[in-house]
């Protein structure tokens, strides 16, 4: 029972990441009709926003280390600590949550820039060309990040206060040994909040209503004289922000490096396909389901029956879904069904 | 004269809309059978049910004694039923000659033939046949142009050529002269008459009454998903129900 | 001159001559050493095969790197189990990759367009994951599959080839496969591959594939069952990939999982597109250019850049070095990605499209001009639906 609950939690928080990324991807595909292979790169850029914030906050000065007496030793002390002492340390400690606020405008800007500069020229071009040009973009982004930050993963820890594990078992009246990292639960909550935020935005604002109408029938919306173009830009920016946020908060869980974008890209398409291309609810549902599925597949008991199943389970599911029910779990019939 | 096509008891609904209701139609071999009717009557839907693009809810489509419902489109094509599309569905990246050669190759090679080592430039018989059909529709001087760049009217003529070259037992034409200028229309009428002499059966959906009355041996009138009359051109001209179907619609619009 | 190139014979003679004399005419630009020449030939085979699928039918597959990998692994296993002679290695590699691509193609082609691409993506990642961590007895995971002294090499044993203290090298009935002989061996396959693609392009089968790309639905209503056409093209291109993989192992007997990643498929896509997809020589042009510049660019470092820009005044020289350094050395991938984007955005037909546009600009006679103008305006006036 413990094990199962653990895996469910594990799956949920991983699934949260999948759901967020898939959400952004579905927004782009469902509204703009564009297949965006650079979406994983947006996730990565969000993560590196967090990295940058951390690096900026910890700009340091070499100071003599008084605690070592038998030779002259120096240590790096961040300016923030020098100027503001304990308060400064606290700011540095909270660099990841601070990054959330920094990343939103940055990702929005990046998203808008990409849409205005590149994507909008590809609305009328074939999906293959969209895939190819965004694939190229993903490589360029990836290489730029690698150029600035190097090839190694950069640890970006969560704030101290939440870096331990919560005694989940005790809370639920189960075994005392059942613990789960605080941060991962926070991530799950955060993902849920963002998802609700996006859905609320789409449901309760006029802008959101237009977007949903556009997702259902783009041509008619255009014919109604609504300036779809400007909305497209904002939607793409929104998708970029969502992907970026997913990335920012994920950094304590997985130290980011330059190729996590590509790593998550295939996964995100698989999730979207399982959920149903063009269905936002489907993307979210599929994200969580696949996260949980992958977690269970990585249980030792399961791996003993079918070794390596955790690596390939998601792809197997995608293959089965694409063959048996190409519209996905919640997709509309006829969307891209060839 | 036998019936080459027998449509029995065909119904098709889309959601709440009854597109086709209790369609019973017999097409005699060797004749030109026109289907007319006001817009939205279900004419294209009927054609689609014949060639496999739509599956009717009930009924059967018996072509030379075999039920075509549920068959793959390519098998229906080889059985002898070929459709000329109303909205041209040509191959835009290929030349007109290539566009016309493809259906000819389909007829000769069947649904699949793996012949990567055959030489295209030596397919003289196919090429000559394609050129002569293009000449019949008046497009031979564009033979080497890309089909995507010709006018819409020319594309419709290309469509016709692509259908004719397969010399099907039954040719289904969906508004073949729509959007054509007068001389093109006449030319098409002459062409279709010429081919009728060769024995090809044709079903024609048309709005242009001049075309209908020049060509048709039999006319069926479709209105609101039902066949309200079938008969010779004279019979149809004088049929009160037909007049009501057409004029009645116009009165409603006012 | 144009009529001359209508004859297959003429083209093949010209092509073979160009390929076989490559060490000579590539020398002046520093591209004539064996390693690079081998890469040209091997990736040329890969790209030609990929072009048969992508160029003719328009189906974009990310899985072909997996077939490359399968070819490599099979070849190395042949070296280990059977013989260092490359013939069985190549034969088995092509067969196994053919079967593998038949399987994957059969499933993936049940969908088209972007669904097809995602399916191949999923399969590519699956293959990579399996090769990396699950099927390690076969693939030796991260380290890669290599030759060892303890390999049985049954056939070699039967034929009486002596076991030595050092690792044996690949050979074609005694002829070593390193250096120039390795290149010439691969070049033979390049010529064969080119001939096959030439025949396919100029056959009714090839025209039908192009028609499928142009309007697949129409093909089905015209009487063609498109599935076997697509599957056969897929398998053919998969076998070419397997062949290329085996040639990689022939010239360097090891096989690694990273060759199977879907991003590795991206490289061959780039080459095909850069040169001009759907044309005969386009992909080869793409291979040549990419591999040549990869060679040059990735070797450049700051010192070399300074040497190149030496002729400029010092300030300007430093600026040029700063601007260009992210694009060289490790940054070669950045250049590749940027190039990729530029080609897709501005010249989707690749270099071949560029050439034909140029030749039309310069080579027009008056008659040609007026005909083009007439038909273009006619088309515009009557409008497109």
Characterization of the model:
The complex is a heterotrimer of chains A (338), B (254) and C (385). Chain A has 338 residues and is mostly helical. Chain A has one domain. Chain A is 69% helix and 4% strand. In chain A, 46% of the residues are buried. Chain B folds into two domains: 167 residues, Rossmann fold (3-Layer(aba) Sandwich), CATH 3.40.50.300; 79 residues, no CATH class. The C terminus of chain B is likely disordered. Chain C is mainly α and 385 residues long. Chain C has a domain of 229 residues. Chain C contains 19 helices and four strands. In chain C, the strands form two sheets. Chain C has a two-stranded antiparallel sheet with strand order 1-4. In chain C, strands 2-3 form a two-stranded antiparallel sheet. In chain C, α4 crosses α12. Chain C is globular, with a radius of gyration of 23 Å. In chain C, 49% of the residues are buried. The chains are: A mainly alpha (338), B alpha/beta (254), C mainly alpha (385). Chains B and C meet through α2, α3 and α5 of B and α9, α10, α11, α12 and α19 of C.
């Amino acid at each position: 029972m413990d094990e199962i609950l653990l895996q469910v939690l594990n799956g949920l928080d991983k699934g949260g990441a999948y759901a967020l990324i898939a959400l952004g991807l579905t927004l782009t595909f469902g509204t703009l009709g564009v297949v965006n292979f650079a979406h994983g790169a947006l996730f990565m850029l969000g993560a590196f926003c967090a990295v940058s914030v951390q690096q900026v906050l910890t700009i340091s000065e070499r100071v003599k280390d008084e605690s070592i007496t038998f030779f002259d030793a120096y240590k790096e002390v961040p300016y923030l600590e020098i100027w503001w002492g304990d308060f400064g340390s606290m700011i540095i400690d909270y660099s990841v949550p601070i990054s959330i606020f920094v990343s939103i405008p940055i990702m929005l800007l990046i998203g808008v820039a990409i849409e205005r500069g590149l994507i909008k020229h590809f609305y009328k071009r074939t999906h293959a060309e969209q895939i190819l040009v965004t694939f190229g973009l993903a490589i360029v982004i990836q290489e730029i990040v690698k150029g600035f930050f190097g090839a190694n993963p950069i640890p970006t820890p969560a704030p101290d206060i939440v870096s331990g594990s919560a005694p989940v078992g005790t809370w639920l009246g189960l075994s005392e040994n059942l613990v789960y990292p605080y941060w991962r639960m926070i991530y799950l909550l955060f993902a849920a909040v963002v998802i609700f935020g996006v859905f609320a935005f789409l449901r309760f604002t006029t802008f959101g209503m237009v977007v949903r109408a556009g997702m259902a029938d783009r041509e008619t919306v255009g014919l109604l004289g609504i300036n779809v173009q400007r909305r497209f830009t904002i939607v793409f920016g929104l998708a970029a922000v969502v992907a970026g946020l997913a990335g920012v908060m994920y950094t304590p869980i997985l130290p980011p490096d330059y190729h996590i974008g590509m790593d998550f890209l295939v996964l995100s398409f698989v999730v979207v396909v399982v959920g149903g291309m063009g269905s936002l609810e489907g993307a979210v549902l599929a994200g969580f389901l696949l996260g949980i599925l992958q977690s269970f597949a990585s249980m030792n008991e399961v791996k003993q029956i079918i070794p390596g199943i955790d690596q390939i389970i998601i792809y197997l599911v995608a293959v089965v879904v694409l063959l048996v029910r190409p519209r996905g779990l919640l997709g509309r019939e006829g969307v891209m069904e060839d | 004269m036998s019936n080459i096509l027998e449509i029995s008891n065909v119904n098709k609904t889309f959601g709440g809309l009854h597109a086709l209701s209790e369609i019973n139609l017999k097409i005699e071999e060797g004749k030109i059978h026109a289907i007319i009717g006001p817009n939205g009557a279900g004419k294209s839907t009927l054609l689609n049910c014949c060639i496999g693009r739509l599956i009717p809810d009930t009924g059967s489509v018996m072509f030379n004694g075999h039920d075509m419902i549920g068959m793959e489109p390519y098998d229906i094509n080889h059985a002898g039923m070929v459709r000329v599309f109303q909205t041209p569905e040509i191959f835009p990246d290929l030349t007109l000659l290539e566009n016309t050669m493809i259906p000819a190759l389909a007829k000769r090679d069947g649904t699949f033939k793996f012949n990567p080592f055959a030489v295209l430039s030596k397919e003289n018989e196919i090429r000559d046949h394609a050129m002569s059909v293009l000449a019949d529709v008046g497009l031979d001087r564009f033979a080497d142009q890309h089909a995507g760049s010709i006018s819409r009217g020319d594309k419709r003529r290309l469509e016709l050529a692509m259908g004719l070259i397969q010399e099907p037992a039954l040719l289904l034409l969906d508004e073949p002269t729509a959007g054509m200028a007068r001389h093109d229309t006449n030319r098409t009428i002459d062409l279709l008459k010429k081919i009728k002499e060769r024995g090809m059966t044709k079903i024609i959906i048309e709005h242009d009454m001049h075309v209908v009355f020049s060509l048709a041996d039999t006319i069926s009138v479709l209105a609101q998903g039902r066949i309200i009359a079938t008969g010779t051109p004279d019979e149809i001209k004088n049929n009160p129900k037909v007049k009501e179907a057409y004029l009645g619609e116009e009165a409603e619009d006012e | 001159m144009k009529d001359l190139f209508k004859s297959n014979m003429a083209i093949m003679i010209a092509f073979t001559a160009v390929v076989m004399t490559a060490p000579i005419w590539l020398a002046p630009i520093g591209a004539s050493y064996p390693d690079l020449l081998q890469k040209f030939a091997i990736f040329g085979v890969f790209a030609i095969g990929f072009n048969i699928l992508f160029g003719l039918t328009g189906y974009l597959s990310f899985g072909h790197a997996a077939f490359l990998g399968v070819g490599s692994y099979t070849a190395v296993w042949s070296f280990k189990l059977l013989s260092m002679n490359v013939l069985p290695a190549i034969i088995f590699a092509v067969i196994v990759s053919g079967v593998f691509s038949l399987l994957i193609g059969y499933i993936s082609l049940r969908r088209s367009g972007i669904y097809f691409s995602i399916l191949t993506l999923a399969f590519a990642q699956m293959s990579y994951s399996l090769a990396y961590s699950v099927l390690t007895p076969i693939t030796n995971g991260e380290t890669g599959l290599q030759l060892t002294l303890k390999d049985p090499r049954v056939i070699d044993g039967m034929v009486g080839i002596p076991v030595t203290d050092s690792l044996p090298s690949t050979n074609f009935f005694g002829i070593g496969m390193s250096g120039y002989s390795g290149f010439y061996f691969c070049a033979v396959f390049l010529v064969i591959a080119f001939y096959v693609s030439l025949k396919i392009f100029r056959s009714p089968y090839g025209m039908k594939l192009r028609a499928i790309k142009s309007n697949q639905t129409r093909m089905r209503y015209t009487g063609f069952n498109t599935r076997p056409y697509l599957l056969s093209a897929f398998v053919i291109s998969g076998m070419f990939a397997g062949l290329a993989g085996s040639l990689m192992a022939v010239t360097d007997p090891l096989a690694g999982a990273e060759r199977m990643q879907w991003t590795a498929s991206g490289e061959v896509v780039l080459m095909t597109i850069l040169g001009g997809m759907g044309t005969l020589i386009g992909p080869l042009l793409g291979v040549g250019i990419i591999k040549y510049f990869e060679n040059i660019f990735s070797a450049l470092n700051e010192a070399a850049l300074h040497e190149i820009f030496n002729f400029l005044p010092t300030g300007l020289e430093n600026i040029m070095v700063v601007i260009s350094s992210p694009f060289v050395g490790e940054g070669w991938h950045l250049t590749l990605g940027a190039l990729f984007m530029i080609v897709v955005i501005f010249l989707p037909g690749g270099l071949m499209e560029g050439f034909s546009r140029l030749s039309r600009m310069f080579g027009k006679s008056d008659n040609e001009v007026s005909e083009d103008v007439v038909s273009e305006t006619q088309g515009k006036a009557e409008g497109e639906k």
